[in-house]
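Q: What would this chain look like folded?
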Amino acid sequence: MITAIVFVEADTPQLSEVAQRIADLPGVSEVYSTTGTIDLIAMVHVHTLEDVAQTVADQLNKIPGVLATETHIAFRAYSSLDLEAAFSIGAD
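A: My prediction, written as structure tokens:
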């Protein structure tokens, strides 16, 4: 499974609509509105790099109101939540 983190610059008046349209795309698990220079962050979970290209370049970038994107591919995950869940299995 490949995880891509996509920073999205969006047209401010359309922000909610853009976020919902991104969230509706196959492979997109979450979309967060953020403060700062990035308007939205989309989490994309797909099987191949070609799927990333299809999701981001062929679909997400073509949503009206998306002005620019920057895509980052995750290659290793670190999460205290995952560790906590693993160590709590079978514990009361």
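The chain has one domain: 2-87.
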